[in-house]
Amino acid sequence: MKAWIDGKIIDGSDAVVSVMDHGFLYGDGVFEGIRITHGRVFRLDDHLARLENSAKLISLELPASVAELREATLATAAAFGEREAYVRLIVSRGVGPFGVDPTPCPEPRFICLVGSVVLYPEERRRQGLRLVTAAVRRPSPDVLDTRVKSLNYLNNIQAKLQAVRAGVDDALLLNQAGRVAEASVANVFCVRGGALATPALSEGPLGGITRDSVLKIAAAQGIEAREEPLTRYDLITADEVFLTGSGAGLIPVAELDGRVIGSADERPMLARLTHALDAFRQENGALIPGI
Length: 291
Ligand code: PMP
Known about the structure:
- This protein has eight helices and 16 strands.
- It has helices at about 20-25, 45-55, 65-80, 120-125, 155-165, 210-220, 230-235, 270-285, and strands spanning about 1-5, 10, 30-35, 40, 85-90, 110-115, 130-135, 170-175, 180-185, 185-190, 195-200, 225, 240-245, 250-255, 260, 285.
- The longest helix is centred in the C-terminal third of the chain and has 16 residues, at about 270-285.
């Protein structure tokens, strides 16, 4: 892994932050997870825009211009040197005294990590994931706007842990109204009668870049796609369900709470979108110099 930290690119194992960084003490900061594929940083400008907006909402000043963060990201990706990888951008509040007040933290910190991509094994990808409905709910936007990708992922972690303890792959988080929000770190889509549906952003999911890419591909290919409220019933009775995320890409869901969804042998929409997303990724990323 390579890390950009304090203006230098070093080996990831040498990258350290102070224990008094409020990102560490309080989860005070924001982040992005980005896919490098085909030697490009996928939709880097859109990820930077989401980072900028997340930071703005929590009144966290970026320590450099977006153009400089972009350059740092590409330089770190070039130093890592692989055509397939994963990028983590972090902006933390920086070092300050004890206490949640961020105003005595004068220097926000930007870190870029580029490392190997961790994917589900091919067998899970073929068979599909098994999900359970999480006991914890996705916090509503009046707790913290759900479009903010903050450094505090405790409810996602609780949901994931429940899934792991139940011996399945991931958890489905419902919103405060009991409708579908998303999986622990991925958006969710279902397919019925050749049309796509995904929870509207007002239902509480993160505005995923992969989710948005699927919606763009659907629009370009004339596939009907609705953003609307969905319930567990809609997923359990769908023809296909799949998750979307920078890390996982598009990955089928085979089961929710023990109910088998569709058929593992027939996922025509997923196959079509996987192919289309790969082509989309080849065209929509910032080229990494030298690789
Ligand atoms: N929801 C959550 C909570 C996430 O952490 C992620 C991963 N960033 C996603 C959805 C998927 O978003 P993206 O496609 O931008 O990776």
